[in-house]
Design a protein that fits this description.
5 strands, 22% helix, 130 residues
Length: 130
């Protein structure tokens, strides 16, 4: 995974097979990586608004450097290498989406921004968040 998302400025994190445990001091980005993965799989709700004591994800994870929120996740699905990309589309953070076979730029049929998370994990956003 490579992210420009909140405090993650072009940083990369490589996960291995099975359960991955990230142990690091406070304020090093553990929760931000979790939010990034959720956003890559399920997108960001641009209709969500800030409220007293709450920042919407579209504002909470704006890159600290003022740049565009964007990311790449490379994964294996059904025995194939897949590259997911999200970035800005107009003023919508993570509004642009692509899912291609890694190294070919050939679109993965049926894998869209709307169904990506559920197809890849087998669960909807609400279950993933829990």
């Amino acid at each position: 995974m490579t992210a420009t998302f909140g405090k993650l400025q072009g940083r990369s994190l490589e996960l291995g097979d099975g359960l991955n445990i990230i142990e690091a001091p406070n304020e090093t980005g553990k929760s931000t990586w979790c939010a990034f993965l959720k956003a890559m799989l399920y997108g960001i709700d641009t209709r969500d608004r800030d409220r007293k004591g709450y920042l919407a994800d579209k504002n909470r994870y704006q890159p600290w450097n003022g740049g565009a929120m964007e990311g790449v996740v490379e994964l294996e699905w059904k025995g194939e290498g897949i590259t997911l990309r999200r970035g800005p589309k107009g003023s919508a953070p993570f509004g642009a989406f692509s899912a291609v076979y890694t190294g070919t730029e050939e679109a993965v049929p049926g894998l869209t921004a709307a169904n990506c998370g559920e197809l890849l994990t087998g669960v909807g956003r609400e279950v993933f968040e829990r």
